[in-house]
Design goal:
The protein has five helices and no strands.
Length: 116
């Protein structure tokens, strides 16, 4: 049994892997940010969401919604604060923002497959 057949579709597998990678990256960046609690919280919630999507839990949809709101707020504030000074950070935050919207939209479209 392959991993993608377990999760149901390649799109949902990609969505859960996106949240897993984001969670790991945020936890890696945690010490570099001076242990900012919002980065740690986003990382932990992203990892829990990845697990929930991978195992098709119905509650994972609500974590996706929570992450959509908080990740959008975080990314927009970061873009606003460093737009003129750090091009790389601004580019990464824009990519993160767009990917968050894409994967949230996909998870919302496929939310009926959660909890099977």
């Amino acid at each position: 049994m392959s991993i993608t057949s377990r999760i149901g579709s390649k799109g949902m597998f990609a969505t859960s892997m996106f949240y897993a990678v984001v969670g790991i990256v945020f936890l890696i960046l945690l010490p570099m940010s001076g242990f900012a609690p919002h980065i740690g919280l986003l990382g932990i919630i992203s990892l829990v969401t990845a697990y929930g999507l991978f195992t098709k839990r119905t509650w994972s949809f609500w974590l996706v919604v929570i992450l959509f709101i908080s990740a959008t707020t975080f990314a927009v504030l970061m873009i606003y604060n460093v737009m003129a000074t750090e091009l790389l950070t601004t580019s990464v935050m824009i990519a993160f923002l767009v990917l968050t919207w894409i994967f949230t939209g996909y998870a919302m479209l496929k939310r009926k497959t959660l909890g099977d």
